[in-house]
Write a structure and sequence with these properties.
Layout (H helix, E strand, L loop, with lengths): L1 E4 L2 E4 H36 L9 H13 L8 H11 L15 H6 L8 H25 L5 H12 L2 H9 L4 H16 L3 H9 L11 H8 L2 H43 L12 H9 L4 H22 L8 H17 L11 H16 L9 H24 L3 H19 L7 H11 L15
Antiparallel strand pairs: 1-2
């Protein structure tokens, strides 16, 4: 398509292709920069310097040391955690604290790494997370049926997504593994294996807030196989935790979660609200502090969103197709918005969610009627990436968390798209096969064509 303005001809397809290439090159550079930063952190740790800061992995490391050297029931002894942190992690400042608040299974898995000096333990853990990230992105790639060049570009952009590359991988956060299990779950659900998909989803519950909103929605939505798989997976996870720390440790974990809930609700300064993108933190920042107003605003928003989402879930037995996938994606996005605690690094779990949503909309575009690309999705995807770069800065300086607004808008759009999706017989996978039957042959597409949405 050509456009004339003041005698200058613009080829918008050419501009879009060059912009896409520039985004991929920028993403590659950013990934390489993150690798360089990780090397610098390792050298600082080896030299005992604070340098670029202590990675969040320090909290996991101290917890694993407790299981190696102390009674398991003391895993959530915050005073003991702090003492080990400042004794065994080099360069930690006296005012730095990294309390461990994940499920006991996390510390249990990391016990072998806690036998290494912290610098080498951190390096090995980053290498493990890199492998898991690549595997998770490979699973994400299998969730879409786009042209190979578009898929490769999307995976490169996903690898450079700031919540994943900087806040999650570089800090050594566990959310990378959550991304992997979420990609597994969405793949199984897309193939119609609801029970197995629910089981994989439950493994994200090593951090309970990742499923705080999802579990009630699965119960209310009437998806018994998905809910049953999630419950069985949760029971298996609880059994592993009991084996790791026993009843005393499990009770201490529950007490810690209770204390954390009260502390976050009270808006304690130890919690950096500017790093949280849930709706409650958004209103706490906006209103200038905790109180009844942020809670009332969240309840009002949930009262409007939940019935709307349930309407998207309610489909006749044996029908649904992509509508079920979009409803699940809306539920997962809603969890980030309505959960009690969503730090920025947990937004990395949005990657498989966005890809599944985009693929479902792409199938609709190639269905009967040959609709145009969904520009609302393209805009929201761009806003997710763009706001992730600036959201902590604006939250800290101006008390406004733009990423929260984008996530809520995405969840609402996903519900709308699900409700507009025509019902089709069979599983979401069957809907994929049906759509592919009418999709134009990709190899016959002209080079430089409009990017897939």
């Amino acid at each position: 398509m050509m456009s004339e303005s003041a005698g200058v001809s613009l080829d918008w397809h050419w501009l879009a292709a060059r912009g896409w290439l520039a985004a991929q090159l920028g993403s590659l550079v950013f990934v390489l920069v993150c690798l360089g930063i990780s090397g610098r952190i390792f050298l600082d740790l080896q030299a005992g310097r604070h340098g670029l800061g202590t990675p969040d992995y320090a909290g996991f490391y101290t917890a694993a040391i407790i299981l190696n050297e102390h009674e398991a029931g003391r895993l959530y002894d915050l005073e003991l955690q702090d003492r080990i942190l400042h004794a065994r992690v080099p360069g930690v400042r006296s005012d730095e604290h990294y309390p461990f608040a994940h499920a006991p299974a996390v510390a249990f898995v990391l016990r072998p790494l806690a036998r290494l000096p912290f610098a080498w333990s951190y390096a090995v853990w980053l290498a493990i997370l890199a492998v898991i990230t690549c595997t998770g992105l490979a699973l994400c790639r299998s969730l879409v049926a786009w042209p190979a060049d578009k898929t490769r570009g999307a995976m490169l952009l996903a690898a450079a997504f700031p919540p994943l590359a900087m806040e999650c991988w570089l800090a050594g956060q566990w959310a990378v593994i959550g991304l992997f299990w979420l990609a597994v779950s969405l793949r199984l659900v897309r193939d119609g294996r609801w029970f197995a998909g629910g089981f994989a989803l439950a493994l994200c519950a090593v951090k309970p807030t990742l499923l705080m909103f999802v579990l009630p929605m699965l119960f209310l939505s009437g998806r018994p196989r998905l809910l049953a798989g999630t419950v069985v997976g949760g029971v298996a996870l609880v059994a592993i935790c009991l084996l790791a720390v026993g009843w005393d440790g499990a009770r201490a974990y529950w007490d810690l979660l209770t204390v954390y809930g009260r502390t976050m609700s009270a808006g304690a300064p130890s919690f950096k609200t500017f790093k949280h993108v849930d709706l409650h933190s958004f209103f706490v920042l906006l209103s200038g502090g905790p109180g009844w107003l942020p809670k009332a605003a969240v309840l009002a928003a949930a009262a409007g969103f939940v019935p709307w989402l349930l309407a998207a879930w309610r489909v006749p037995a044996g029908q649904g197709g992509d509508r079920q996938l979009l409803a699940l994606c809306a539920t997962l996005t809603g969890n980030m918005v309505f959960s009690a605690y969503t730090p920025i690094y947990d937004v990395s779990l949005l990657i498989p969610n966005l890809l599944v949503t985009g693929d479902a909309l792409e199938r609709r575009r190639h269905g009967p009627g040959n609709r145009r690309p969904n520009f609302a999705f393209l805009l929201l995807a761009a806003l997710v990436v763009g706001s992730a770069w600036v959201t902590q800065v604006t939250a800290r300086l101006y008390g406004l968390q733009p990423l929260t607004v984008v996530l809520l808008s995405l969840a609402c759009c996903q519900v709308t798209w699900a409700l507009r999706e025509p019902l089709s017989a069979g599983t979401p996978r069957a809907a994929c096969r049906l759509a592919s039957a009418v999709r134009p042959v990709q190899s016959g597409m002209v080079s430089g064509a409009e990017p897939s949405s």
